Amino acid sequence: MERRVVVTGMGAISPVGNSVAEFWEGIKNGKCGIDFIKNFDTSDMKVKVAGEVKDFDPTLFIEKKETKRMDRYSQYAVAAACEAVKMSGIELDKVNKHRFGVMVGSGIGGLGTIEEQVIKMHEKGPSKVAPLFIPMAIINMAAGHIAIKFGARGTCTSTVTACATSTNCIGEAFRNIKHGYSDIILAGGSEASVTKIGIAGFTSLKALSTSENPKRASIPFDAERHGFVMGEGAGILLLEELEHALKRDAVIYGEITGYGSTCDANHITAPLSDGEGARLAMQEAMEESGAGKNDITYINAHGTSTVANDLSETCAIKDLFGEQAYNIPVSSTKSMTGHLLGATGAIEAIASIEALINNFVPPTVGYEVPDEGLDLNYVPNKGIEKEMKYALSNTLGFGGHNAVLCIKKWEGK
Known about the structure:
The chain is of the alpha/beta class. It has 13 helices and 14 strands. It has a ten-stranded mixed β-sheet, with helices on both faces. Strands 2-3 form a two-stranded antiparallel sheet. The protein has a two-stranded antiparallel ribbon with strand order 11-12.
């Protein structure tokens, strides 16, 4: 028997706020979290802006001694997980810990730690490399820290699919609960790649915007777009089997009803120009959820602000929905957060859930110049009120990875 999976808690660390409430308030009001990079000197770099996390204090969630044993990406993940658990109201001493799992990934992991320790080795020799370098750098450690903190002894995995990472983590967690292997899973992703080597690497790939105007750097679907903006942070959802949630009178924020996962099998960075892989992932998610084309009331697009992605994704949406595509608002919250890489899917799933709860579509800010062929309703600059039913949350990663969640507004059992 297939079981239903609901969201009973959420946690967010983002460039526009370090809680779900702050994040949603910022996104709803079109707040741009992109600014000039403050964490390191960019005077010798072509890229000057990013979506950095601001005013983050890890000691609010983690003992000071423990923070020194974690890369920032793990700190963000634990902080977001703490908020999700608190929001859920779950009493963890009353749950079966062997049916309580963690599925949290990262696109890159402890990049800041890697950068710091490689420099230290180069300057001072290999004996000076930190003893905890490896545990701080590896991608599975965010999930490990979360499991340790909350005593989750069930499945604990870290999917790594570049920008699709956290959507794949949430989707696989959904299936794990749906098919009876777990009752509760903390799922999502975290990233802290706004580092000098991170920015330099993506700049050399010619993937990043070189705009020195933060308001015109991440401009999805705009004709003048020319690259994405790096963001950082974490998004965690507490997924729970429906009856398990109802028995404890949990507040339910939304229901995951479908998941699609495909690969372009085409190129290491470029999407298929016709968007076929993205289209199939959206189609799979809708088919599993039982949602028809007229049921989808919002699409949170991957919308990276790159020439290739925005056109490919628009083609995918138009190919799947036909004329109905013009009736569906499609916005990219990356216009406000930048691209959180392995955390982007989770943070955008939270935006989609909040959109459903509030019957409000967040905008694509910074949109000024329409592009021929990109003619959907991208909700330019100001959000709109709209009665909601289902939302699609799209994430499309390097390597051709496509992952889509179909999320249903919770209206009772």
